[in-house]
């Protein structure tokens, strides 16, 4: 099963959220999954994708949509914005690793292609929920510190 993951490329305080994830039966070539993933993102967010940053596995993708596809380690890119955003693409690799290890994407206990799709979606949802819980915890700690500046808990000695 090939899993196609789309992650935000923006630097946010809460982390990088997984916007779209697909489980594709078999082992399709990365370039063949690009159009479907871009279509999924546009359908879920309602926003047209302008630029897609991909690794070298997507060479020969033949994407015919409106989105401009930029492949990492390609010469001739002169725009500083595109160069900066291509460097930011490298931050996505740890997210893929976390979905495999923490989210247990490697182990699927659900049967068939439908089970693979369900597992992929649940892994993405779990990743996003972990980010939200961490952000809400940090917000709660900041609020408590702001509202109770004089309060310092002491450890009871036994």
Describe the fold and architecture.
With 158 residues, the chain is α+β, with helices and mostly antiparallel strands. The protein contains four helices and four strands; from the N terminus they run E-E-H-E-E-H-H-H. It has helices spanning 30-45, 80-88, 92-101, 112-147; strands spanning 2-7, 18-24, 51-54, 68-71. Strands 1-2 form a two-stranded antiparallel ribbon. Strands 3-4 form a two-stranded parallel ribbon. The chain starts with a strand and ends in an 11-residue tail after the last helix. The mean pLDDT is 78.
Give the helices and strands, then pairings.
Elements: E1 2-7, E2 18-24, H1 30-45, E3 51-54, E4 68-71, H2 80-88, H3 92-101, H4 112-147
Parallel strand pairs: 3-4
Antiparallel strand pairs: 1-2
Could you provide a short overview of the structure?
Helices cover 45% and strands 13% of the residues. It has four helices and four strands.
Keywords:
single chain, 158 residues, alpha+beta, two-stranded antiparallel ribbon, two-stranded parallel sheet, 4 helices, 4 strands
Determine the mean pLDDT.
78
What would the principal axes of the Cα set say about the shape?
A: globular
Count of discrete alpha- or pi-helical segments spanning 4 or more residues: 4
Question: What's the N-to-C terminus distance?
Answer: 56 Å
**What is the N-to-C succession of helices and strands?**
EEHEEHHH
- Please describe the biggest sheet, giving its number of strands, its sense, and whether it closes into a barrel: 2 strands, antiparallel
Helix/strand/pairing class, anyone? alpha+beta
Strand arrangement across the biggest beta sheet? 1-2
Number of β-strand runs:
4
Oligomerization: single chain
Helix content: 40-55%
CA radius of gyration is 20 Å
Strand content: 5-15%
- Low-pLDDT residue intervals, each spanning 5 or more residues: none
